[in-house]
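Recall that a protein's primary structure is simply its ordered list of amino acids. Everything else, from secondary elements to tertiary packing, is in principle encoded there. The following example makes that idea concrete.
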Amino acid sequence: MSNIRTGVPHLRIARPSRDLAAAERFWVGGLTLDVLWRATAAGPGGHDLLMLGWPDAHWHLELVAGDVPDPTPTAEDLLVLYLDGPVDEDLVRELERAGGTRVSAGPYWDRWGVTVRDPDGYRLVLSTRAWSNR
């Protein structure tokens, strides 16, 4: 029996990026994700790639640059982190210093957190809510 329904499988969120250095400043310098792996176009994949996350998390964010389509994020392209508590304003300032822009994501997310647009235009929501699958 597959463990796909147990929540154990690792999740990869892959996105194109115009500028991996700017993206790294935002996600690593601002949000404090770790660089889990890095590759260049000279490597096996044939493009520049950055994998970011926390080593003990069951997910990672993969950013790809080079011969890939330009990012075309919409207002619904959200990466939501459920903090189960208040959003640290110092963290929001760090994300802004690292190239992010605080934006509105609509009444629901504005009520339940803070949204910051990354250098590629994708939105990161820092939610004050706890994760619930109900």
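The CA atoms of residues 53 and 60 lie 5 Å apart. The helical segments are 20-30, 89-97, 107-111.
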